[in-house]
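MODEL INPUT / OUTPUT PAIR
PAIR INDEX: 1
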Amino acid sequence: MNSQKKRQGMVGIDAQAMLLAFSLGCFFLPVAAWAVTIAGVEGGQSGLMLPQAPSEEEVVAKQTKLRVACPSTAEKSISQRQQVQGESLGESLGRLGDLSFYVQGVGRHPSVSLEWPADDSVGQWEMQQVVTNRRVSKVITELAKLDPADASKRISCQIEKAISDYSALGGGLLGNPVGARSAALSRDTTILEAPKMAFATENGPNNATVLKGARLELFSLAFVVGYLHLADASEAMLSLALQAKAQRDILYMYKPDAGVPAADPSKPVDMAKPGPVVLLHCYGLYNRVALAAGLLGCLDAETRAVYLNSLGAVDYPMGSAFSVVTPYDNGVDVVGPNPAETAQAELPREIPDVEIDRLIDLVSKRLVSPTS
Protein backbone atom coordinates (compact mmCIF):
# COMPACT_ATOMS: atom_id res chain seq x y z
CA MET A 1 0.00 0.00 0.00
CA ASN A 2 1.29 3.47 -0.83
CA SER A 3 1.27 4.66 2.78
CA GLN A 4 3.59 7.57 2.05
CA LYS A 5 1.41 9.00 -0.68
CA LYS A 6 0.29 12.59 -0.20
CA ARG A 7 -3.43 13.14 0.14
CA GLN A 8 -3.65 16.78 -0.93
CA GLY A 9 -5.51 16.07 -4.13
CA MET A 10 -8.55 14.35 -2.66
CA VAL A 11 -11.88 15.10 -4.26
CA GLY A 12 -14.64 15.06 -1.70
CA ILE A 13 -16.93 12.25 -2.68
CA ASP A 14 -18.65 11.28 0.54
CA ALA A 15 -20.44 8.25 -0.86
CA GLN A 16 -20.87 6.40 2.43
CA ALA A 17 -22.97 3.34 1.75
CA MET A 18 -25.23 1.84 4.37
CA LEU A 19 -23.36 -0.77 6.36
CA LEU A 20 -24.75 -4.23 6.54
CA ALA A 21 -26.59 -5.00 9.74
CA PHE A 22 -24.13 -7.60 10.88
CA SER A 23 -20.86 -5.61 10.41
CA LEU A 24 -18.35 -5.10 7.65
CA GLY A 25 -15.72 -6.80 9.74
CA CYS A 26 -16.67 -10.17 8.34
CA PHE A 27 -14.69 -9.39 5.22
CA PHE A 28 -11.39 -9.16 7.00
CA LEU A 29 -11.70 -11.28 10.13
CA PRO A 30 -10.26 -14.77 9.78
CA VAL A 31 -13.11 -17.06 8.74
CA ALA A 32 -12.73 -20.81 8.46
CA ALA A 33 -12.75 -21.90 4.83
CA TRP A 34 -15.60 -24.40 5.09
CA ALA A 35 -17.00 -25.74 1.87
CA VAL A 36 -17.50 -28.86 -0.13
CA THR A 37 -14.75 -30.17 -2.36
CA ILE A 38 -16.11 -31.16 -5.73
CA ALA A 39 -14.02 -34.16 -6.67
CA GLY A 40 -14.47 -36.75 -9.36
CA VAL A 41 -17.14 -34.80 -11.26
CA GLU A 42 -17.34 -36.33 -14.72
CA GLY A 43 -15.97 -33.89 -17.27
CA GLY A 44 -15.54 -31.15 -14.69
CA GLN A 45 -12.81 -29.82 -12.45
CA SER A 46 -11.79 -31.60 -9.28
CA GLY A 47 -10.53 -30.22 -6.00
CA LEU A 48 -12.52 -26.97 -6.13
CA MET A 49 -13.96 -25.65 -2.89
CA LEU A 50 -17.59 -24.75 -3.54
CA PRO A 51 -20.46 -23.75 -1.26
CA GLN A 52 -22.99 -26.50 -0.63
CA ALA A 53 -26.70 -25.95 -1.11
CA PRO A 54 -28.89 -26.68 1.95
CA SER A 55 -31.54 -29.39 1.97
CA GLU A 56 -35.11 -28.43 1.08
CA GLU A 57 -36.23 -29.36 4.60
CA GLU A 58 -33.71 -26.95 6.08
CA VAL A 59 -34.78 -24.22 3.66
CA VAL A 60 -38.45 -24.55 4.63
CA ALA A 61 -37.65 -24.42 8.35
CA LYS A 62 -35.33 -21.44 8.04
CA GLN A 63 -37.66 -19.49 5.77
CA THR A 64 -40.46 -19.89 8.31
CA LYS A 65 -38.21 -18.55 11.05
CA LEU A 66 -36.91 -15.74 8.85
CA ARG A 67 -40.41 -14.55 7.94
CA VAL A 68 -41.01 -13.86 11.63
CA ALA A 69 -37.61 -12.35 12.44
CA CYS A 70 -36.90 -10.37 9.24
CA PRO A 71 -39.92 -10.24 6.91
CA SER A 72 -38.29 -7.95 4.32
CA THR A 73 -35.20 -10.15 4.09
CA ALA A 74 -37.38 -13.26 3.79
CA GLU A 75 -39.32 -11.75 0.89
CA LYS A 76 -36.15 -10.82 -0.98
CA SER A 77 -34.41 -14.12 -0.21
CA ILE A 78 -37.34 -16.27 -1.34
CA SER A 79 -37.73 -14.26 -4.52
CA GLN A 80 -34.05 -14.47 -5.44
CA ARG A 81 -33.81 -18.17 -4.65
CA GLN A 82 -36.80 -18.86 -6.87
CA GLN A 83 -35.28 -16.83 -9.67
CA VAL A 84 -31.90 -18.56 -9.67
CA GLN A 85 -33.47 -22.00 -9.27
CA GLY A 86 -35.56 -21.44 -12.37
CA GLU A 87 -32.68 -20.18 -14.53
CA SER A 88 -30.46 -22.15 -16.84
CA LEU A 89 -26.71 -21.57 -16.66
CA GLY A 90 -26.91 -19.40 -19.77
CA GLU A 91 -29.69 -17.30 -18.29
CA SER A 92 -27.77 -16.76 -15.04
CA LEU A 93 -24.68 -15.73 -17.00
CA GLY A 94 -26.73 -13.30 -19.06
CA ARG A 95 -28.23 -11.69 -15.95
CA LEU A 96 -25.03 -10.89 -14.03
CA GLY A 97 -25.63 -7.22 -14.83
CA ASP A 98 -28.79 -7.19 -12.67
CA LEU A 99 -28.00 -4.69 -9.92
CA SER A 100 -30.71 -6.01 -7.60
CA PHE A 101 -28.62 -9.12 -6.92
CA TYR A 102 -25.57 -7.19 -5.68
CA VAL A 103 -25.74 -6.05 -2.07
CA GLN A 104 -25.11 -2.32 -2.31
CA GLY A 105 -24.18 -1.47 1.27
CA VAL A 106 -20.97 -3.43 1.76
CA GLY A 107 -18.66 -0.55 2.55
CA ARG A 108 -17.54 2.95 1.69
CA HIS A 109 -16.90 3.93 -1.87
CA PRO A 110 -13.29 5.03 -2.28
CA SER A 111 -12.57 8.72 -2.57
CA VAL A 112 -11.33 9.98 -5.89
CA SER A 113 -7.77 11.23 -5.80
CA LEU A 114 -6.12 13.49 -8.34
CA GLU A 115 -2.78 11.98 -7.43
CA TRP A 116 -1.65 9.00 -9.46
CA PRO A 117 -0.94 6.17 -9.41
CA ALA A 118 -4.04 5.26 -7.44
CA ASP A 119 -3.60 3.56 -4.08
CA ASP A 120 -2.72 -0.14 -4.31
CA SER A 121 -5.79 -1.15 -2.28
CA VAL A 122 -8.35 0.44 -4.61
CA GLY A 123 -10.68 -2.19 -6.03
CA GLN A 124 -11.67 -4.11 -2.91
CA TRP A 125 -15.03 -2.33 -2.60
CA GLU A 126 -16.48 -3.65 -5.86
CA MET A 127 -15.16 -7.17 -5.30
CA GLN A 128 -16.99 -7.26 -1.99
CA GLN A 129 -20.13 -6.58 -4.00
CA VAL A 130 -19.32 -9.35 -6.49
CA VAL A 131 -19.22 -12.10 -3.86
CA THR A 132 -22.64 -11.04 -2.51
CA ASN A 133 -24.37 -12.01 -5.77
CA ARG A 134 -26.19 -15.36 -5.64
CA ARG A 135 -25.96 -15.67 -9.41
CA VAL A 136 -22.16 -15.46 -9.27
CA SER A 137 -22.13 -18.37 -6.84
CA LYS A 138 -24.53 -20.37 -9.00
CA VAL A 139 -22.50 -19.72 -12.16
CA ILE A 140 -19.30 -20.87 -10.46
CA THR A 141 -20.91 -24.02 -9.07
CA GLU A 142 -22.46 -25.03 -12.39
CA LEU A 143 -19.45 -24.17 -14.55
CA ALA A 144 -17.29 -26.29 -12.23
CA LYS A 145 -19.24 -29.35 -13.37
CA LEU A 146 -18.35 -28.76 -17.03
CA ASP A 147 -15.24 -29.60 -18.95
CA PRO A 148 -12.85 -26.63 -18.42
CA ALA A 149 -12.70 -25.96 -22.16
CA ASP A 150 -16.50 -25.75 -22.36
CA ALA A 151 -16.66 -23.56 -19.26
CA SER A 152 -13.99 -21.27 -20.71
CA LYS A 153 -15.90 -20.95 -23.99
CA ARG A 154 -19.09 -19.94 -22.18
CA ILE A 155 -17.29 -17.37 -20.05
CA SER A 156 -15.35 -15.98 -23.02
CA CYS A 157 -18.54 -15.43 -25.01
CA GLN A 158 -20.15 -13.67 -22.06
CA ILE A 159 -17.11 -11.45 -21.47
CA GLU A 160 -17.10 -10.38 -25.11
CA LYS A 161 -20.81 -9.59 -25.00
CA ALA A 162 -20.47 -7.74 -21.68
CA ILE A 163 -17.61 -5.61 -23.02
CA SER A 164 -19.77 -4.65 -26.00
CA ASP A 165 -22.72 -3.79 -23.74
CA TYR A 166 -20.52 -1.80 -21.38
CA SER A 167 -18.94 0.15 -24.24
CA ALA A 168 -22.35 1.03 -25.66
CA LEU A 169 -23.55 2.28 -22.26
CA GLY A 170 -20.29 4.06 -21.40
CA GLY A 171 -20.19 6.54 -24.26
CA GLY A 172 -17.04 7.80 -25.94
CA LEU A 173 -14.89 8.15 -22.85
CA LEU A 174 -15.40 4.63 -21.50
CA GLY A 175 -16.26 2.77 -24.68
CA ASN A 176 -13.60 4.18 -27.01
CA PRO A 177 -10.31 4.60 -25.10
CA VAL A 178 -8.30 5.42 -28.24
CA GLY A 179 -10.65 8.22 -29.25
CA ALA A 180 -10.93 9.43 -25.66
CA ARG A 181 -7.15 9.68 -25.33
CA SER A 182 -6.94 11.75 -28.49
CA ALA A 183 -9.80 13.96 -27.32
CA ALA A 184 -8.21 14.48 -23.91
CA LEU A 185 -4.91 15.54 -25.46
CA SER A 186 -6.65 17.97 -27.81
CA ARG A 187 -8.99 19.19 -25.05
CA ASP A 188 -12.02 18.18 -27.07
CA THR A 189 -14.62 17.67 -24.32
CA THR A 190 -17.44 16.37 -26.53
CA ILE A 191 -16.42 12.74 -26.26
CA LEU A 192 -15.84 13.12 -22.53
CA GLU A 193 -19.45 13.92 -21.68
CA ALA A 194 -21.21 11.35 -19.51
CA PRO A 195 -23.83 9.31 -21.39
CA LYS A 196 -27.48 9.43 -20.42
CA MET A 197 -28.30 7.25 -17.41
CA ALA A 198 -24.60 6.63 -16.82
CA PHE A 199 -25.00 6.98 -13.07
CA ALA A 200 -28.21 5.04 -12.52
CA THR A 201 -28.13 3.02 -9.31
CA GLU A 202 -31.01 0.73 -10.26
CA ASN A 203 -31.85 -1.36 -13.31
CA GLY A 204 -33.44 0.41 -16.21
CA PRO A 205 -36.96 -0.17 -17.58
CA ASN A 206 -37.82 -3.87 -17.87
CA ASN A 207 -34.71 -4.63 -15.78
CA ALA A 208 -32.41 -3.37 -18.53
CA THR A 209 -28.74 -3.32 -17.59
CA VAL A 210 -27.27 0.09 -16.73
CA LEU A 211 -23.60 1.12 -16.76
CA LYS A 212 -23.00 0.22 -13.12
CA GLY A 213 -24.48 -3.23 -13.68
CA ALA A 214 -22.43 -3.82 -16.83
CA ARG A 215 -19.28 -2.89 -14.92
CA LEU A 216 -20.04 -5.25 -12.03
CA GLU A 217 -20.88 -7.98 -14.53
CA LEU A 218 -17.40 -7.74 -16.04
CA PHE A 219 -15.77 -7.80 -12.61
CA SER A 220 -17.88 -10.85 -11.76
CA LEU A 221 -16.83 -12.64 -14.94
CA ALA A 222 -13.17 -11.90 -14.21
CA PHE A 223 -13.70 -13.28 -10.71
CA VAL A 224 -15.20 -16.48 -12.17
CA VAL A 225 -12.24 -16.92 -14.55
CA GLY A 226 -9.88 -16.62 -11.60
CA TYR A 227 -11.84 -18.81 -9.20
CA LEU A 228 -12.19 -21.67 -11.69
CA HIS A 229 -8.72 -21.20 -13.28
CA LEU A 230 -10.16 -21.02 -16.79
CA ALA A 231 -6.96 -20.65 -18.78
CA ASP A 232 -8.78 -21.16 -22.08
CA ALA A 233 -10.59 -17.87 -21.44
CA SER A 234 -7.27 -16.01 -21.72
CA GLU A 235 -8.06 -14.18 -24.94
CA ALA A 236 -11.34 -12.71 -23.65
CA MET A 237 -9.79 -11.90 -20.28
CA LEU A 238 -6.90 -10.17 -22.00
CA SER A 239 -9.32 -8.05 -24.06
CA LEU A 240 -10.95 -6.87 -20.85
CA ALA A 241 -7.60 -6.14 -19.23
CA LEU A 242 -6.29 -4.16 -22.20
CA GLN A 243 -9.41 -1.98 -22.36
CA ALA A 244 -9.15 -1.37 -18.63
CA LYS A 245 -5.47 -0.47 -18.93
CA ALA A 246 -6.25 1.97 -21.74
CA GLN A 247 -8.79 3.66 -19.46
CA ARG A 248 -6.17 3.83 -16.70
CA ASP A 249 -3.72 5.54 -19.02
CA ILE A 250 -6.32 8.18 -19.89
CA LEU A 251 -7.18 8.68 -16.21
CA TYR A 252 -3.54 9.23 -15.33
CA MET A 253 -3.38 12.04 -17.88
CA TYR A 254 -5.58 14.13 -15.62
CA LYS A 255 -2.99 15.93 -13.55
CA PRO A 256 -1.70 19.50 -13.71
CA ASP A 257 1.56 18.69 -15.50
CA ALA A 258 -0.10 16.62 -18.22
CA GLY A 259 -1.57 19.58 -20.07
CA VAL A 260 -5.11 18.39 -19.40
CA PRO A 261 -7.45 20.43 -17.17
CA ALA A 262 -7.91 18.71 -13.81
CA ALA A 263 -10.90 18.92 -11.49
CA ASP A 264 -10.77 21.48 -8.69
CA PRO A 265 -9.84 19.55 -5.51
CA SER A 266 -11.23 22.34 -3.35
CA LYS A 267 -14.79 21.70 -4.50
CA PRO A 268 -16.92 18.62 -3.80
CA VAL A 269 -17.80 16.54 -6.82
CA ASP A 270 -21.40 16.50 -7.97
CA MET A 271 -22.04 12.85 -8.71
CA ALA A 272 -24.94 13.83 -10.95
CA LYS A 273 -22.61 15.86 -13.17
CA PRO A 274 -19.15 14.36 -12.79
CA GLY A 275 -16.21 15.09 -15.01
CA PRO A 276 -13.99 12.55 -16.76
CA VAL A 277 -11.88 11.86 -13.64
CA VAL A 278 -14.87 10.63 -11.65
CA LEU A 279 -16.31 8.80 -14.65
CA LEU A 280 -13.08 6.90 -15.26
CA HIS A 281 -12.35 6.25 -11.60
CA CYS A 282 -15.81 5.22 -10.42
CA TYR A 283 -17.27 3.70 -13.61
CA GLY A 284 -14.17 2.54 -15.47
CA LEU A 285 -12.96 -1.04 -15.81
CA TYR A 286 -9.58 -0.59 -14.17
CA ASN A 287 -10.22 -2.59 -11.02
CA ARG A 288 -6.84 -4.14 -10.24
CA VAL A 289 -8.24 -6.77 -7.88
CA ALA A 290 -10.72 -8.05 -10.47
CA LEU A 291 -8.15 -7.91 -13.27
CA ALA A 292 -5.49 -9.66 -11.20
CA ALA A 293 -7.95 -12.39 -10.21
CA GLY A 294 -8.93 -13.05 -13.81
CA LEU A 295 -5.43 -12.83 -15.26
CA LEU A 296 -4.01 -15.12 -12.57
CA GLY A 297 -6.71 -17.64 -13.47
CA CYS A 298 -5.19 -17.78 -16.95
CA LEU A 299 -1.77 -18.80 -15.61
CA ASP A 300 -0.39 -21.95 -14.04
CA ALA A 301 -0.96 -22.84 -10.38
CA GLU A 302 2.64 -22.13 -9.35
CA THR A 303 2.59 -18.61 -10.80
CA ARG A 304 -0.75 -17.88 -9.13
CA ALA A 305 0.56 -19.03 -5.76
CA VAL A 306 3.72 -16.94 -6.03
CA TYR A 307 1.74 -13.81 -6.86
CA LEU A 308 -0.78 -14.27 -4.07
CA ASN A 309 1.98 -14.96 -1.55
CA SER A 310 3.95 -11.89 -2.61
CA LEU A 311 0.98 -9.53 -2.75
CA GLY A 312 -0.92 -10.73 0.29
CA ALA A 313 -4.44 -12.05 0.06
CA VAL A 314 -7.79 -11.56 1.72
CA ASP A 315 -10.62 -14.08 1.95
CA TYR A 316 -14.17 -13.03 1.08
CA PRO A 317 -16.94 -15.45 2.13
CA MET A 318 -19.09 -16.59 -0.80
CA GLY A 319 -22.43 -18.13 0.12
CA SER A 320 -24.46 -20.70 -1.76
CA ALA A 321 -26.91 -19.38 -4.32
CA PHE A 322 -29.57 -21.47 -2.61
CA SER A 323 -28.99 -20.58 1.04
CA VAL A 324 -31.90 -18.97 2.85
CA VAL A 325 -29.55 -16.11 3.72
CA THR A 326 -26.03 -15.48 2.52
CA PRO A 327 -23.30 -14.00 4.75
CA TYR A 328 -24.36 -10.54 3.54
CA ASP A 329 -28.09 -10.55 4.31
CA ASN A 330 -29.96 -9.17 7.27
CA GLY A 331 -31.08 -12.03 9.46
CA VAL A 332 -27.82 -13.91 9.12
CA ASP A 333 -27.53 -13.92 12.92
CA VAL A 334 -30.97 -15.57 13.17
CA VAL A 335 -30.88 -18.22 10.45
CA GLY A 336 -27.33 -17.91 9.17
CA PRO A 337 -25.99 -20.42 6.65
CA ASN A 338 -24.34 -23.59 7.87
CA PRO A 339 -20.53 -23.55 7.50
CA ALA A 340 -20.71 -25.90 4.51
CA GLU A 341 -22.82 -23.32 2.65
CA THR A 342 -19.92 -20.85 2.54
CA ALA A 343 -16.62 -20.98 0.64
CA GLN A 344 -13.75 -18.52 0.88
CA ALA A 345 -12.69 -16.59 -2.21
CA GLU A 346 -9.01 -15.64 -1.99
CA LEU A 347 -8.14 -12.38 -3.75
CA PRO A 348 -5.13 -10.04 -3.69
CA ARG A 349 -5.32 -7.52 -0.85
CA GLU A 350 -3.26 -4.87 -2.62
CA ILE A 351 -1.76 -4.79 -6.08
CA PRO A 352 0.20 -2.00 -7.82
CA ASP A 353 -0.10 -0.98 -11.45
CA VAL A 354 3.21 -2.57 -12.38
CA GLU A 355 1.95 -6.01 -11.38
CA ILE A 356 -1.13 -5.66 -13.56
CA ASP A 357 1.14 -4.77 -16.47
CA ARG A 358 3.29 -7.83 -15.75
CA LEU A 359 0.27 -10.12 -15.59
CA ILE A 360 -1.01 -8.75 -18.90
CA ASP A 361 2.42 -9.42 -20.40
CA LEU A 362 2.51 -12.97 -19.00
CA VAL A 363 -0.93 -13.84 -20.34
CA SER A 364 -0.08 -12.28 -23.71
CA LYS A 365 3.05 -14.41 -23.96
CA ARG A 366 1.15 -17.56 -22.99
CA LEU A 367 -1.32 -16.90 -25.82
CA VAL A 368 1.48 -16.52 -28.33
CA SER A 369 3.43 -19.49 -26.99
CA PRO A 370 1.19 -21.69 -24.78
CA THR A 371 4.04 -23.99 -23.75
CA SER A 372 6.28 -21.18 -22.50
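PAIR INDEX: 2
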Amino acid sequence: MRKTCPCGCGRPISLGLAAAARDYSRLIEDMDGARGVFAWAAQAVPPDEPDRASTQQDIVVVRELGEHVEGLLLAHLHGSARAGVAPTVAELHRRMEDYEEALEALGARWQRAGGGGAPTPA
Protein backbone atom coordinates (compact mmCIF):
# COMPACT_ATOMS: atom_id res chain seq x y z
CA MET A 1 0.00 0.00 0.00
CA ARG A 2 1.28 3.46 -0.88
CA LYS A 3 0.52 6.98 0.20
CA THR A 4 1.12 10.25 -1.58
CA CYS A 5 4.12 12.44 -0.83
CA PRO A 6 3.15 15.19 1.63
CA CYS A 7 5.06 17.85 -0.35
CA GLY A 8 2.23 17.95 -2.86
CA CYS A 9 4.17 16.52 -5.81
CA GLY A 10 1.76 13.60 -6.10
CA ARG A 11 4.46 10.95 -6.00
CA PRO A 12 3.51 7.71 -4.32
CA ILE A 13 5.57 6.79 -1.27
CA SER A 14 5.89 3.41 0.37
CA LEU A 15 4.70 2.71 3.88
CA GLY A 16 8.37 2.26 4.79
CA LEU A 17 8.69 6.03 4.47
CA ALA A 18 5.65 6.83 6.62
CA ALA A 19 7.85 8.19 9.44
CA ALA A 20 9.68 10.47 7.01
CA ALA A 21 6.34 11.69 5.64
CA ARG A 22 5.04 12.45 9.15
CA ASP A 23 8.27 14.25 10.05
CA TYR A 24 8.16 16.26 6.84
CA SER A 25 4.56 17.35 7.48
CA ARG A 26 5.37 18.25 11.09
CA LEU A 27 8.46 20.20 10.07
CA ILE A 28 6.52 22.21 7.49
CA GLU A 29 3.87 23.05 10.10
CA ASP A 30 6.60 24.13 12.52
CA MET A 31 8.29 26.29 9.90
CA ASP A 32 4.99 27.91 8.88
CA GLY A 33 4.10 28.54 12.51
CA ALA A 34 7.48 30.15 13.16
CA ARG A 35 7.11 32.98 10.67
CA GLY A 36 6.34 35.45 13.45
CA VAL A 37 9.48 34.49 15.33
CA PHE A 38 11.58 34.66 12.17
CA ALA A 39 10.25 38.12 11.29
CA TRP A 40 10.78 39.36 14.83
CA ALA A 41 14.35 38.13 14.97
CA ALA A 42 15.16 39.52 11.55
CA GLN A 43 13.52 42.93 11.90
CA ALA A 44 11.86 43.75 15.19
CA VAL A 45 14.64 43.19 17.70
CA PRO A 46 15.52 46.70 18.88
CA PRO A 47 18.97 47.92 17.82
CA ASP A 48 19.87 48.56 21.46
CA GLU A 49 18.91 45.02 22.54
CA PRO A 50 22.08 43.54 24.10
CA ASP A 51 21.42 40.12 22.52
CA ARG A 52 20.43 41.49 19.08
CA ALA A 53 23.36 40.01 17.15
CA SER A 54 23.08 36.70 18.97
CA THR A 55 19.34 36.50 18.37
CA GLN A 56 19.68 37.31 14.69
CA GLN A 57 22.46 34.75 14.30
CA ASP A 58 20.37 32.14 16.12
CA ILE A 59 17.42 32.68 13.79
CA VAL A 60 19.62 32.16 10.75
CA VAL A 61 20.96 28.92 12.24
CA VAL A 62 17.48 27.66 13.18
CA ARG A 63 15.96 28.55 9.81
CA GLU A 64 18.85 26.93 7.92
CA LEU A 65 18.58 23.78 10.05
CA GLY A 66 14.86 23.51 9.26
CA GLU A 67 15.46 24.04 5.55
CA HIS A 68 18.31 21.52 5.54
CA VAL A 69 16.24 18.84 7.26
CA GLU A 70 13.34 19.60 4.92
CA GLY A 71 15.53 19.01 1.88
CA LEU A 72 16.96 15.78 3.24
CA LEU A 73 13.53 14.42 4.17
CA LEU A 74 12.33 15.23 0.65
CA ALA A 75 15.33 13.39 -0.76
CA HIS A 76 14.23 10.28 1.13
CA LEU A 77 10.59 10.71 0.11
CA HIS A 78 11.51 11.27 -3.54
CA GLY A 79 14.01 8.41 -3.64
CA SER A 80 17.08 10.55 -4.30
CA ALA A 81 18.77 10.15 -0.90
CA ARG A 82 22.05 8.31 -1.40
CA ALA A 83 22.65 5.47 1.04
CA GLY A 84 25.80 6.01 3.05
CA VAL A 85 25.85 9.72 2.16
CA ALA A 86 22.48 11.11 3.27
CA PRO A 87 21.55 10.83 6.95
CA THR A 88 19.06 8.11 7.80
CA VAL A 89 15.43 8.95 8.47
CA ALA A 90 16.07 8.24 12.17
CA GLU A 91 18.96 10.74 12.21
CA LEU A 92 16.78 13.30 10.44
CA HIS A 93 14.11 12.77 13.10
CA ARG A 94 16.70 13.66 15.77
CA ARG A 95 17.74 16.75 13.78
CA MET A 96 14.12 17.76 13.48
CA GLU A 97 13.75 17.49 17.25
CA ASP A 98 16.85 19.71 17.60
CA TYR A 99 15.17 22.21 15.28
CA GLU A 100 12.01 22.18 17.37
CA GLU A 101 13.96 22.74 20.60
CA ALA A 102 15.85 25.67 19.08
CA LEU A 103 12.61 27.10 17.72
CA GLU A 104 10.97 26.83 21.14
CA ALA A 105 13.90 28.72 22.68
CA LEU A 106 13.52 31.50 20.10
CA GLY A 107 9.77 31.52 20.70
CA ALA A 108 10.38 32.01 24.42
CA ARG A 109 12.66 34.99 23.65
CA TRP A 110 9.96 36.38 21.38
CA GLN A 111 7.35 36.08 24.12
CA ARG A 112 9.63 37.78 26.67
CA ALA A 113 10.10 40.62 24.19
CA GLY A 114 6.33 41.11 23.94
CA GLY A 115 5.75 39.17 20.75
CA GLY A 116 2.53 37.64 22.03
CA GLY A 117 1.70 33.96 21.93
CA ALA A 118 4.85 32.40 20.58
CA PRO A 119 4.49 29.98 17.69
CA THR A 120 5.61 26.63 18.96
CA PRO A 121 6.22 23.35 17.17
CA ALA A 122 3.33 20.93 16.78
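PAIR 2 NOTE: The longest helix spans residues 52-78.
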